[in-house]
Amino acid sequence: MADCKKNKKLRIGLKQSMKAISEGLAEKLIIARDADQYVTRGVLKLAEEHGVKIEYCESMKALGKACEIDVGAATAVIIK
């Protein structure tokens, strides 16, 4: 998750993450452990299909803070 803090090329949120993965732009997917599995199931599958690395974060709040936003985030991707 330290990658988020030092890397400014991010897409934050489920829809933006899925779009970046589909377009082949994503290097790593970060998922909050407390995010609803129903919500994250699709993006996880997409990341696996596209060979994107997957990392987990302790919570949505922590992921949002690492991405320097004021709200929690279920997912974020680091762009290549």
Observed structural traits:
80 residues, alpha+beta, 60s Ribosomal Protein L30, Chain: A, four-stranded mixed beta sheet, 4 helices
Task: Measure the end-to-end span.
Answer: 16 Å
Instruction: Supply Rg.
Output: 11 Å
Helical proportion? 40-55%
- How much of the polypeptide forms β-strand, as a percent range? 25-35%
Major sheet strand order: 1-4-2-3
What is the H/E string? HEHEHEHE
Query: Can you tell me the CATH topology?
Result: 60s Ribosomal Protein L30, Chain: A
Sheet with the most strands?
A: 4 strands, mixed
- The computed structural class is alpha+beta
CATH superfamily: Ribosomal protein L30/S12
Number of helical segments? 4
Q: Give the rounded overall mean pLDDT.
A: 90
Quickly give the CATH architecture: 2-Layer Sandwich
Fold and architecture overview:
There is one protein chain. By secondary structure, the chain is an alpha+beta fold. It has one domain: 2-Layer Sandwich (60s Ribosomal Protein L30, Chain: A). It is built from four helices and four strands; from the N terminus they run αβαβαβαβ. The chain has a four-stranded mixed beta sheet with strand order 1-4-2-3. Strand 2, helix 3 (37-49) and strand 3 (53-57) form a beta-alpha-beta unit. The two termini are 16 Å apart. 34% of the residues are buried. The model has no long low-confidence stretch (mean pLDDT 90).
